[in-house]
Design brief:
The protein is built from 14 helices and 15 strands. The chain has about 400 residues and is α/β, with parallel strands linked by helices. Strand 4, helix 5 and strand 5 form a beta-alpha-beta unit. It starts with a strand and ends in an 18-residue tail after the last helix.
Length: about 400
């Protein structure tokens, strides 16, 4: 039996891909422990998940401004905000707790999300083997020269502060990095130097406990999911108004996630809820209209669904470019959405077979990559060496 520690940030999209990996590891007799924010992990990984909780009050203090600013910043400014106001403070806030947890629980292998830098830093400082969980291909690609250089400099300063020798991207492991996508979707962008293993979306054990009126699905109409994800749900009420104006009484059934009360009187062909069981719903759909979140895009493509992507911030413009260049969908400008444009785009992806063919090609690449079972095959094949309990490995950070 091997002991695995998953170190994750308090972000749904960064926890979800590892849920199926954890379930697969446990089904094969291995031990999995989660290190992170209990309130975020347990609803996704299940009440039986072994969670080593980090101090909740400090994490909540970081999350509140993230939620507020998610409705304001965009473009390159959102990248600066993500690192300076969330990723780096999260690393500094949690490093001591993470080091203590690693020393106390003695995992054989650490799987650390890219945005949970304290896990990578602690593993390096303690001399423990670790690999990165890559939940968005934009994080490994060289696509924005100015942003790429800034990120490398910024992470360099953090490494100096933590007493570590500099590497270009400390969020990437020199041992292995598990990417929840495939090159068939991510395209031919140049990557940062690191060993990458592509496993495709990890959906096998994913569930979401959201009620849904399944009996209202209309078998006679094509079905479209409209979602801005969890972080951007409250971005702009005009988005939802535009969707209603564009698609009310049209020959399509729209399942839309929107904040409670933001769509007061939905048209008859709309189902509007704050949350939906997205993974369970995907097999019933014909297309997806979304913000370009990597999980939503890859989950949709895994079911051969064409997309309309309206990127807002962070990695979403890159993911939108990948959707467009793969010919699996269309991209629209979020701040310039017009009802007529939305309506035209929706019926293009529903009626033009080329989009579905491209999406199914990517779905085939995802299926071949293997998902969570393949990720576990890879993890369990890595050579394991029990770390020596040296004086250095027992030192705990005061940062």
């Amino acid at each position: 039996m091997t002991r695995y520690m998953f170190i994750v940030p308090p972000l749904t999209g960064h926890i979800n891909p590892l849920v199926s990996v954890a379930a697969e590891l446990e089904s094969r007799g291995h031990e999995v422990m989660w290190l992170g924010y209990r309130k975020m992990i347990e609803p996704l990984a299940g009440p039986c998940a072994r969670v080593i909780p980090l101090e909740a009050s400090r994490l909540r203090a970081l999350l509140e401004p993230l939620k507020e600013m998610a409705n304001i910043v965009r473009g390159l400014e959102s990248v600066r905000f993500l690192f300076e106001d969330f990723v780096l403070p999260l690393a500094r806030t949690t490093i001591a707790e993470v080091e203590r947890a690693i020393v106390e629980h003695q995992p054989d292998l650490i799987i650390c999300d890219q945005q949970m830098l304290s896990g990578a830093i602690a593993a390096r400082r303690l001399g423990r083997p670790w690999i990165a969980s890559v939940t968005t291909t934009a994080a490994i690609l060289k696509v924005w020269e100015v942003a790429d250089r800034w990120i490398v400099r910024t992470l360099g300063r953090l490494q100096t502060e933590m007493g570590l020798p500099l590497v270009e991207r400390p969020d990437l492991s020199h041992i292995a990095n598990v990417v929840f996508s495939t090159p068939a979707f991510s395209g031919q962008f140049e990557c940062f130097q690191a060993p990458f293993t592509y496993v495709g979306p990890s959906l096998q054990a994913r569930t979401m406990r959201a009620e849904f009126p399944w009996d209202r699905l209309d078998e006679k109409l094509p079905k479209l999911l409209v979602s801005l994800g969890t972080v951007n749900l409250r971005r702009d009420p005009r988005f939802y108004q535009t969707m209603v104006e564009a698609l009310a009484d049209q020959p399509v059934q729209v399942i839309m996630t929107a904040p409670e009360g933001w769509v007061a009187d939905p048209p008859a062909n709309f189902i509007v809820q704050p949350h939906v069981p997205q993974v369970a719903l995907l097999p019933y759909l014909n297309a997806v209209f979304c913000h370009g979140g990597h999980n939503t895009v890859c989950e949709s493509l895994a079911h051969g669904l064409p997309l309309i992507v309206t990127p807002i911030r962070d990695d979403q413009p890159v993911i939108g470019r990948q959707v467009k260049s793969s010919q699996a969908g269309l991209t629209l400008r979020f701040n310039r959405l017009k009802a007529e444009q939305v309506r035209e785009s929706v019926f293009r992806v529903l009626n033009e077979k080329s989009f579905r063919i491209a999406a199914e090609r990517i779905a085939a690449s995802f299926a071949a990559a293997g998902g969570a079972p393949q990720a576990v095959d890879f993890l369990t094949a890595l050579p394991m060496r029990k770390p020596a309990k040296t004086r250095r490995s027992m030192q705990l950070s005061s940062v």
